[in-house]
Design brief:
Keywords: Nucleotide-binding, RNA-binding, Transferase. This is Poly A polymerase head domain-containing protein. By secondary structure, the chain is mainly α. It has 3 domains: 90-194, cca-adding enzyme, domain 2; 199-373, no CATH class; 379-432. 54% of the residues lie in helices and 10% in strands. The chain has 20 helices and 12 strands. A hairpin with a 4-residue loop joins strand 6 and strand 7. Helix 12 (236-247) crosses helix 16 and helix 13 (265-273) packs antiparallel against helix 14. The longest helix is centred in the last third of the chain and has 26 residues, at 278-303. The N and C termini lie far apart (82 Å). The mean pLDDT is 91.
Length: 433
């Protein structure tokens, strides 16, 4: 029905000498929660979806409707997750139609309310719990008491685990992080006691303890608080990575087993619990790897000035993420020093974090002053093959050792020559042996 009606609309535009666009047909796919055929096209540069009204019946143990039929506008409105999503616009009368008789008022009052019993709605489709949180944070609205009570019910929590795929949870979570109020999202997840379900811990943890979800709330709060400082995210991508790192900060220092080997648990959380991309998983894993190193480095820099090579070798280790990792390390230290502070109100915390922020701002400035912002891209002045040739060695583990010596020397001697570097290699190897 959706495709046929979209075709009719295109014909109408053609008859009125208006330009038309191609129509994309999206077939039904219940396994991906597409229960009826949908068509999509653009009208006056606005993307519009076409599908027919419907009503649904659910069976226990599944969030996929067992029976779908064409429905009336009222039936279709009541199958929606929340009242503010159930409003219709009648193109004939040019009026908004509110069949639940709550949508317009809830929109005015800033309320997220289910279209019928929250418990029954969530039991039918537990993903609606997560969607309620997302829409509340997107618009800065409040959840009804009924929603909060239903979301905390053991049966609903169990259904959320058993009936909803990790991919769907991950998709909703990603939209929250990208949305206008990520702090409200993680606050609601924490308040509704859903953090262990949304950000599920690996089952094979072998060392370390997962911190309580309040740590994630405060970490996200600090990222938002840093917004008016030098340590603020420099672009949308960095902000997302800082927020994502903050959300999973309770897993810092936790180790899990994978293929009989110990690995940082955070990678498994991102991969399996919220189904991020491999790029996101690698980014956050690198940031987590850098936090303890940078925390120690920043402290050392307050006691004595860091050498160019000390800082440069860490930047080479972290690659292009070095600056993001420094900012996330500041977040971690603020949490360590002020664990009891509620960071949701940034105005009250301006003076508190100045000294810590300055410590990490100094680190970023030092990188710039030393001219090593992109030293992770530097090539070795003398490559491994040449180093082995000079010393009459065969390729092996010792070459890695020599390359480290070479890069440290390069960092300490920005005006050094290749000949000088080769002499340093010979002296180093001679002294060692």
């Amino acid at each position: 029905m959706g495709y046929e009606f979209a075709t009719f609309v295109n014909k109408y535009f053609e008859s009125h000498d208006q330009s038309t666009r191609s129509i994309a047909k999206i077939d039904s796919n219940p396994e991906k929660s597409r229960h009826l055929e949908t068509a999509t096209t653009r009208i006056f540069d606005q993307e519009v979806d076409f599908c027919n009204l419907r009503t649904e019946v659910y069976e226990p143990g599944s969030r996929i409707p067992s029976h779908i039929t064409f429905g009336t506008p009222k039936e279709d409105a009541y199958r929606r997750d929340i009242t503010v999503n159930s409003l219709f616009y009648n193109v004939n009368t040019m009026q908004v139609e509110d069949f639940t008789e709550c949508g317009i008022q809830d929109l005015t009052d800033g309320i997220i309310r289910t279209t019928f019993s929250s418990f029954v709605s969530f039991r039918d489709d537990p993903l609606r719990v997560i969607r309620c949180i997302r829409f509340a944070s997107r618009f800065g609205f409040e959840l009804t008491t009924e929603i909060c009570e239903a979301a905390k019910h053991p049966e609903i929590k169990s259904a959320l685990i058993s009936k909803v795929s990790r991919e769907r949870i991950g998709t909703e979570f990603d939209k929250m992080i990208k949305g206008p109020h990520p702090l409200l999202s993680i606050q609601l997840i924490h308040q509704l006691e859903l953090y262990p379900i949304v950000i599920q811990a690996p089952s094979n943890i072998i060392s370390g303890n997962v911190a309580e979800s309040k740590v994630a709330v405060n970490a996200v709060g600090i990222v938002c608080w840093l917004g008016d400082k030098l340590l603020k995210p420099s672009n949308a991508a960095e902000k997302r990575h800082m927020l994502l790192s903050a959300c999973v900060l309770p897993f810092l220092g936790v180790t899990a087993e994978q293929k009989k080997k110990p690995v940082p648990a955070v990678g498994l959380v991102l991969r399996d619990a919220i189904k991020t991309t491999n790029a996101d998983m690698n980014t956050v894993s690198t940031i987590f790897h850098g936090i303890p190193i940078l925390q120690q480095l920043a402290q050392t820099n307050t006691e004595r000035k860091l050498k160019r090579s000390e800082l440069g070798m860490v930047i080479r280790d972290l690659g292009a993420l070095w600056e993001t990792a420094i900012k996330c390390t500041a977040v971690k230290e603020l949490l360590d020093v002020y664990p009891e502070i509620d960071w949701s109100n940034p105005e009250e915390k301006i003076e508190i974090g100045k000294e810590i922020c300055q410590k990490y701002e100094d680190l970023i400035k030092m990188v710039d002053d030393y001219g090593i912002k992109e030293c992770y891209q530097w090539k070795y002045m003398v490559d491994g093959k040449r180093a082995a040739q000079i010393l009459g060695l065969k390729p092996g583990p010792h070459v890695t050792e020599l390359l480290k010596v070479i890069m440290i020397w390069q960092l300490e001697n920005p005006n050094g020559t290749k000949e000088e570097c080769e002499k340093v290699i010979e002296e180093y190897w001679s002294n060692k042996n």
